[in-house]
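@channel sequence for tomorrow's demo:
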Amino acid sequence: MAVLVESRDAVAVVTISRPQALNALDGKTLRELLAVAEEIAADTGTRAVVLTGAGDKAFVAGADIAEMSRFSAEQARRFSLLGRRAMAAIEGASQPWVAAVNGFALGGGCELALACDIRFAAQNAKFGQPEIGLGVTPGFGGTQRLPRIVGLGWAKYICLSGRPIRAEQAERIGLVQGVFPREELLPAAMKLAGELAQKSPLILDYLKRQLSRALDVDLDTGHEIERDLFALCFASHDQKEGMGAFLEKRAPEFRGD
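structure tokens (generated this afternoon):
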């Protein structure tokens, strides 16, 4: 198995483990990742996810070039669709996914990190979309998610130049939300995931839906989506529990309904 899953209470730790290939994404790994993401999405006992790579060198060094080099145009199209499905399963999950980027996140690895909700990076991490040097474009959503996260100017710089950027620069442009010494990265990601796991699963899902749509619709439509989901909160147990706990000065116990 190239995708390992470990449960730590309500947090699932997903590790891409192909150390011989710097955790590069081939078709088999993408199919495993898609299956894992779908299984986690259906598991109400999992309330947050941490995604990382095995070893110290790479989160995911990219898509597997050895495999891609033999593709026909139709095979490349199917490979892109498979990658897009895996990324969409992560992005569309009700649970928050936290990427713990422990090294190279290039090409498909950067796209995988982009599909997560929050990204933490080790100080040695590098991000980039170097596909232009291989005579191809990104195929797993990089040209779509990157400008939404860092803006069009930085997205063009990263994709057109193919140059990698270091973790500190990635933090400055909003690509990552925190940079840590290597040994502190996973504990920091786990701490955040543990905090998220204590929140209402229902409201986390509502928030992800609202925020994901924010850049794709006009402002009035966005306000309407927000208004309707805000109203739905008041039909839930978790709204009553959250406000009741606040008034009673105790910790809430959210159920996700």
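heads up for whoever presents: The chain has a mean pLDDT of 96.
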